[in-house]
Amino acid sequence: MGVRAQQKEKTRRALVDAAFNQLSAERSFSSLSLREVAREANIAPTSFYRHFKDMNELGLTMVDEGGLALRQMMRKGRQRAEAGGSVIRISVDTFMEVLDSNPNVFRILLHERSGTSAPFRAAVAREIEHFISELAHYTEEKAHRNPELARAQAEAMVTLVFNAGAAALDMKKSERKVLADQLVMQLRMVAKGAEVLHQKVDNR
């Protein structure tokens, strides 16, 4: 990559980071202005268009990045569990670590999941589908579930995790710990229920 291409990528990255930094419990992406994002990234507003055609394109990029970052962290959590320990407990702890260190990665998905923009809702739905598909595949391989049951289990687990994440975002650390323990219990109940159904199918 040449120097010019590197600088362009650096500026594009600065714009994405600037938009992420301005998200909060009170501010969704739709409330951000191009000028605010450009100012935070230390570029002229007119330079924005060299990197994104409009704010919607920037937002969709953020949704993609947020979903990918979360999936990568959850993969690492599962890898950590393979070295020893509860997959569910370690995965939940990893998810809570993401909310601690970079809450806006999850916040963009949460805000736009039910936002007014159809393209944004569709983009978040795709990211959630990626979560479900990855978890279903993992469950098929590790727990030897049939595809239909693995899919149902994954859908239930992702729903629980997203709902817990929405509640955890603005909680104190002590409150988040209680929520994490409850989430672990709920996910174990889903896994246990799936195991019972799996055994019933096998015993037919």
From TrEMBL:
PROSITE patterns: HTH_TETR_1 (PS01081), HTH_TETR_2 (PS50977)
Cited InterPro entries: DesT_TetR_C, DNA-bd_HTH_TetR-type_CS, Homeodomain-like_sf, HTH_TetR, HTH_transcr_repressor_FabR
Gene name in the database record: fabR
Organism: Shewanella jiangmenensis
HTH tetR-type domain mapped to chain residues: 10-70
DNA-binding region: 33-52
Pfam families hit by this protein: TetR_C_46 (PF21943), TetR_N (PF00440)
Gene3D superfamilies: Homeodomain-like, Tetracycline Repressor, domain 2
Domain of life: Bacteria
Protein name listed in UniProt: HTH-type transcriptional repressor FabR
